[in-house]
Design a protein that fits this description.
Distance between the termini: 47 Å
Radius of gyration: 22 Å
Helix content: 40-55%
Strand content: 5-15%
Number of helices: 13
Strand order of the largest sheet: 3-2-1-4-5-6-7-8
Largest sheet: 8 strands, mixed
Shape: elongated
Structural class: alpha/beta
Number of strands: 8
Length: 288
């Protein structure tokens, strides 16, 4: 670990309720970037046999969620959304029965479709300060895109801490919660749409006789490069496209073919449909 990494170290213990893929992605990102070590990580799951990866890394693993809440300073809630109420009920029952005075903890929800209003209701008796995030799976390779919305209970220090942790796995943007469902359709679901584009581009090359592995590798690099250009070049995406389209050239022929098949409308409608479904799920969860 170099000096720059050492300077980023945090002393807090990080907990995960739920040890699935998203929890692993966050954990790998913050450990790889030197924020914490594996022995600062606490994770719980209903079956220890499903926590093999965590055990192998030397993390503190439990079947009981209350042990993670007791030990950790920051707790990432990474269970399936419909399990939240079961988890919080068990925690409230345990700490009430044991008459423990639970200090204020910082909870970070990764749950899609669960609003801050619902989280506050569920975690209020646990003295929880709450931040809601909407990550995507690209966190695994350090190129994630995460949305962050704090509740009124979260302090500026809480926001800075969580933003710093998540930034180790890619971009982290604080947004109003009203944006979460709509932007999540772009960032979280958008990766799936881009994988479909990547696969289709590779299919086109395969159709023209290129081996699949080579076509996929080059399609992935092309999308990666185009994304960095769009982010860093300081030019409108239309200008970047026009710079590739020579008069009567090859690219403009391909652009015309895409336009004939309504590529812009297809993506706009995909984001719109995803966002509407996210809103429906959130409304349904508020009624539970």
């Amino acid at each position: 670990m170099n000096d720059e990494q050492k300077s980023k170290n945090i002393s807090q213990k990080i907990g995960f309720i739920g040890g699935g893929n998203m929890a692993k992605a966050i954990c790998e990102g913050i450990v790889t970037n030197g924020l914490v070590t594996f022995d600062q990580i606490y994770v719980s799951g209903p079956r220890l046999k499903h926590l093999g990866w965590w055990i192998g890394q030397g993390c503190n693993t439990y079947q009981e969620n209350e042990k993670v809440v007791s030990e950790a300073d920051i707790i990432f809630i990474c269970v399936k959304p419909h399990i939240l109420q079961t988890v919080t009920s068990e925690l409230k029952s345990t700490f009430s029965r044991n008459k423990e005075v639970l200090p204020s903890k910082l909870y970070v929800s990764v749950l899609a479709g669960i609003s801050l209003e619902t989280l506050n209701k569920e975690l209020e008796s646990l003295h929880g300060r709450i931040i809601r995030i909407m990550p995507n799976t690209s966190m695994v390779v350090g190129e994630g895109c995460t949305l962050l919305s704090p509740s009124s209970s979260a302090t500026d220090a809480d926001k800075e801490l969580v933003s710093g942790i998540i930034s180790a796995t890619g971009l982290c943007k604080e947004v109003p919660e009203d944006y979460i469902n709509h932007l999540g359709a772009l960032t979280a679901s958008g990766s799936a749409f881009i994988y479909m584009v990547l696969e289709a581009l590779a299919d086109g090359a395969v159709k023209m006789g290129i081996p699949r592995a080579l076509a996929t590798e080059l399609a992935a690099q092309t999308i990666l490069g185009a994304g960095k250009m769009a982010r860093d070049a300081g030019k409108h995406t239309a200008q970047l496209k026009d710079e590739i389209c020579s008069p009567a050239g090859t690219t403009i022929q391909g652009v015309h073919a895409l336009e004939k098949h309504g590529i812009r409308a297809a993506f706009i409608e995909a984001v719109e449909a995803t966002a509407k479904r996210a809103v429906e799920i959130e409304i349904a969860n508020k009624k539970i």
